[in-house]
Amino acid sequence: MAEKHDRMVAQYRAQLVRRGYRINGRSPFVDYRPDIFATKGSSDLFVEVEIEVTLNSPHTLEQLEKMYSYIAHKGHCRGVLLVPRGVAGEARFLIDALFGDRHICVKSS
Questions:
Q1: The domain spanning residue 22 has which CATH number?
Q2: Which of 36, 39, 81, 96 could form a disulfide with 47 if both were Cys (CB 3.0 to 4.6 A apart)?
Q3: Helices 88-99 & 58-72 angle (0-180, nearest 10)
């Protein structure tokens, strides 16, 4: 399972680099490190990658809440929840149910 997660992280990171993002190693969070933290110009992008078995875990929900609270208060930040295609609908429902807006979007791989 960890291989699938790591492969998704690597593929999305490569896509971001091709689109002109710079991948940052340091997270601006004190108690949370997103799978990918990237910048392009003055815009920050936080990406959390989840696979089928981890999507609804308490740990994932905690990570998404921390990401959301940071993004919702900053004007130049976006969040992405990257999931496998088979659970994209479930992930969209989860984000809508938790946050009710579009600060975090769901993308599938």
A1: 3.40.1350.60
A2: 36
A3: 60
